Amino acid sequence: MSLLPKALTAPIKSALSRWFAARAPKSDSATLNLRNVYIFFSREGMLFAVLLGITFIAGINYGNNLVLGLCFYLVSIWLISFHVTFAHISGLQVRLLEVTMTEAGLPVWITLQLNSDSRQPRVSCYLNLSS
Question: For an engineered disulfide with 93, which of 63, 71, 78, 115 has Cβ 3.0 to 4.6 Å away?
Fold first, then answer.
């Protein structure tokens, strides 16, 4: 269930769809780089951002340097995690090998090939392709 009415979200979704289509056209294979890797917040990430905001406001309101230091430390860890995530998947080649035929409403099995020409090992890649 959406919090905003469809009249407000529909133009935004169509504009984003056009932007994504122009930026990363559909293909059976792709090499992950700056143009086609998007790191979005999960629900937990948004909660973490809200808690960081509350911590920052509390630190400023009460003039507590330890709380502000903790807030800045947690923000730096958060930003470093974005960088490490991108560095981990940058240069990874993803190729679609097979898509099984199925009926509507049933799960679809796909076969992907992940390949890396880098000397850096790719460990623990988790793919979630749910709708």
Answer: 115
Residue where the block lists tokens 């790191």: 39
| Three-state secondary-structure class, residue 22 | helix
Show the tokens assigned to 131: 């709708």
Looking at 1-131, which runs of residues are DSSP E strands?
A: 29-31, 93-99, 110-115
Inter-CA distances, 49 with 52, 92, 94, Å = 5, 29, 31
Q: Is the pLDDT confidence value at 1 over 60?
A: no
Report the alpha-carbon distance of residue 113 to residue 90 in Å, rounded.
15
Tokens of 59: 């630190």
Q: Name the token pair of 15.
A: 């504009």
